[in-house]
Amino acid sequence: TLKATITFIGVPPAITPVFMAVVVMIVVLVQSKRLRSAVSRLVRSIRPTPPARPDLEVAP
Amino acid sequence: MSGISTNVSGFVSRLSAWILTNVPGFFSRRSAWIPVFAALAILVVMMVGAQVRFGNFLTPRLLSSLLLDNAYLMILAVGMTFVILTGGIDLSVGSVLAFTGILGARMLVEGSPVAVVIPVMIVGGSLIGLLIGVLVQFFDVQPFIASLAGLFLARGLAFVVSLSSIPVVEPSIVWLQSTRFSVGGWYITPTGIIAILVVVAAALVLGYTRFGRTIYAIGGSEQSARLMGLPVMRTRLLAYVVSGTCAGLAGVVFAASVGAYPLNGVGTELDTIAAVVIGGTLLSGGSGFVVGSMIGVLVYGTIKGIISYLGAESSWARITVGALLLTFVVVQRAIVARSTRRR
Questions:
Q1: How far is B94 from chain A (nearest CA, A)?
Q2: Cα B63 to Cα B78: distance, rounded to the nearest angstrom
Q3: Tens digits of per-residue pLDDT, B149-172?
């Protein structure tokens, strides 16, 4: 499918290995723990923390 | 006359006594050298056998051509030895050789000076090695998969640079392969000198530097190397950079000998791994020598030479190398099992 798509968009089929390499790298990077934890840290830092509700009392 | 024969027999008996006393002790202390000497013995047996069979095999001209024809493979084998010693593998070297070769040829055609082209070729190889090293070390990707991605990338980039072959006619590049320094029938080309220098430099680095010893330590036990405080991360990354750099340099040598073509070096990575394993480097890492890899390349070249002398199909060279490789892998397993029992 990758090769057919690349040929369809007008890229010479001989260059397919570059796209294969990119796909392989994306897949292995998505699977890596380091990248996933970095992304989850990033998401946590971007997501706004919910404001504390003043009507709630904390038990002593 | 009888005095001479007495002296000779005395020398032989003393020599055999010395061998029986010292050689077993040497091999029990340094079992890692056993496969190297086995490869050397196979090389000698093959050469002597070919000389007996053909009568004109062991000539200075043919032995010189062994180095000339396999200089690029020797350089690749040096880089591969670094990676295999850490317990990894680099499948990208053949494609990197093709990519750097075609990149350099294209730059030369477009008028870039050689002083720029050669460093660019070598650094191009280093960068692909760095990419593989980063994937392996930082993202815990299996070396097989990471270097497979490097293989695809380099092969594809070679086709991006040019879809057809580019002849290399730059005099200073052609000089590397066409110049022959001759002494009494023996000759050596600048490519052969480069290959020998790379082997010597790598042997010194592996044997006498902190980086080299750390490579052995990582291959032996990565956990222990970490606990000892050795720079595991940096060293493993550098091993892949060394392999990529050697592939870039081999690209220069290969382009000088046969020109540049995007399909150059297809399957060369497997020939390189075969030569390194035949030379006695354990695929599991931690044991092996660059000198052994050099002997492995010479064994590979000799097999090709003998098959060519026999007039048989070149596929028989691959079959013979395959059989030899199988034998060496079994021998390696036996050595590993023996050393494990001793612990």
A1: 14
A2: 20
A3: 999 999 999 999 999 999 999 999
